[in-house]
Amino acid sequence: AALLWAAILLGCSYGPGPPRVGAAPLLTATYVLDDADGLGRQFDGIGAVSGGGATSRLLVNYQEPYRSQILDYLFKPNFGASLHILKVEIGGDGQSTDGTEPSHMHYENDENYFRGYEWWLMKEAKKRNPNIKLIGLPWTFPRWIGKGENWPYDYPDVTAYYIVSWILGAKQYHDLDIDYIGIWNERAFSSKYIKLLRYTLDKRGLEQVRIIASDRLWEPISFVLLIDSELHGVVDVIGAHYPGTKTVQNAILTEKKLWSSEDYSTFNDEVGAGCWARILNQNYVNGNMTSTIAWNLVASYYEELPFGRCGLMTAQEPWSGHYKVEAPIWITAHTTQFTQPGWSYLQVDGHLEGGGSFVALTDGLGNLTIIIETMTHNHSQCIRPPLPNFSVTPQRATFYLKGSFFMVETLQVWHSRLGFESGNSSLFQRLHPVKVWRGRFSLDLDVDEVYTLTTLKTGHKCIYPEPPPPHPFPSNYKDDFNIRNPPFSEAPNFADQTGVFEYFVNASDPGDHVFTLRQVVIQRPITWVSDADQTISIIGNFQWVNVTVTCDIYIEKQRDGGVFIAGRVDNGGIYVRRTKGVFFWVFADGTYRVTRDLAGEEILMKGLSGVRDNAWHTLTLNIQGSSASGLLNGYPLWENVTVSKPRNGWAALGTRSFEFAQFDNFHVE
């Protein structure tokens, strides 16, 4: 006690200071940081996922300077989140949570390494941080991979060829070196396929690409690695999802790197920030995990889709330019700005006596970073798994620096307090440095705080001017798709939920419809969730009630082809099969239907239209209050159809099946 008070009198304490008169005495405890007996596991970095799916869909549509500002907050070193790792979906044309992402090989004889936006995103990340690690992982696959079956492992040589083609394409067309490759997100793994993937990688000169398995649970992959020495030799990282900061004994016995290769997935308010702060530390403290990767990178998808705003920050309004740097960005910075992959954890228990945790890392060159979190239970619950009860109390922590850290005299201090009671959070604030006296300092810790203490002086909290204020999607929106060299393969603001809709040059057209939007997936993909049997792309404002949708349509599939336009569309993402709305269909056999659902089963009206395939027609759907009407080529086709539910939703377009079809001159008002 005498030594402790001497330290305080000498200015070695840091934090709120001694408790006020009458307050309960603080719980006190001491912790030793020493590298004399060696170090712990090597740190592999903190990252985030773009994809799984279509989570960055709206980001690409932002105008400058806002798009670059968002990217800086995510990737620029010593600026914001300063991420070490970017993990992207290898698009497979199937629904993978909030939409579909296009494959580089829709068909067996098709290769295009410019589809989608993940290539662009990886390049933007590398532009800001050349050292960022890149990971690719498939959620879905084109159907031809399984030769008609909904399974990617029957022909493992075909699947390996497909995945390795993506890695080679990344290098050939974008000069991107992929560091890690996964197997199949949260689905079964095949030992035979993993071995063949390693063989194919090596054969193509990609020995440096490491394999992560199995992006699901710790088991059965850990057990299989222990009994299959050949598989053990080709898997570099065991990646588990949402491990609840815990690992299993078999995983540790493999002596492999252990990662939480997908985690977080929580609404990005202060509770989400508390979840993120807790697991960033405790995944290592409790589970020996040396990397934690957040799903998702940035919430750039319509918020009413599943898991709205479950990104480190929010950028879901490209039409207004508005975005929000959420609290998880600055919680990330507490670790990422003061560590790098290749640093090592110190061998410490990491549990604080009063609840909470700490980790300590070093670069082996004398630098030391300590990250402390004191998140309370109710303020740090992640979306999954359930969090057992625990308690955290204010406490005084005294740290003794030994070994090569004994001579450290000063530590820089960065602090966040999540303000659940006051509503005012203090995020990533630089405080006065703490003086270390004879290898010792003390810190008073309150609940729901994060501290970083570090020898590094490179941290920065960079803030751009406020972006424009939020604004709803334009109430009058047109797109004629007339763009000769589009920067991306998909039209702005359309969010594909089943199928893939791409810009298309219709070379055979005499002039009115040379540039169109075309649905291009003609076989149901190898799915990750229950994709619809119809294709659909949504757009607009989920709150729209009274709406007029007009679009030129072109059915390419003879006899049983069909297309629709729709309003008040109420669902998407993993729930796309249950989508309701008002759907106006026309078919190649000359009939039409009006239905209450995407499945086309709840029929409100049907009849003859005279529409044929391989000809352009204009459809108009008008919904006002509880009544809907439809026009074909400007003339009334049906009217006074009663529509009660849903009461609001997006606009949409799509096809009857996985079939080619084209759309032009889209207008919603």
Explain this structure to me?
Helix content is about 15%, strand content about 30%. The chain has about 675 residues and is of the alpha/beta class. It has 2 domains: about 290 residues, Alpha-Beta Barrel (TIM Barrel); about 190 residues, Jelly Rolls (Sandwich). Strands 3-4-5-6-7-8-9-10 form an 8-stranded parallel β-barrel, surrounded by 4 helices. Strands 21, 23, 24, 26, 31, 32, 33 and 35 form an 8-stranded antiparallel sheet that branches. Strands 22-25-34-27-28-29-30 form a 7-stranded antiparallel sheet, with no helix packed on it. Helix 2 crosses helix 3 and helix 9 runs parallel beside helix 10. It starts with a helix and ends with a strand.
Features:
globular, eight-stranded parallel beta barrel, 10 helices, 35 strands, Galactocerebrosidase, TIM Barrel, galactosylceramidase activity, eight-stranded antiparallel sheet, disordered N terminus, alpha/beta, 669 residues, Jelly Rolls, single chain, 2 domains
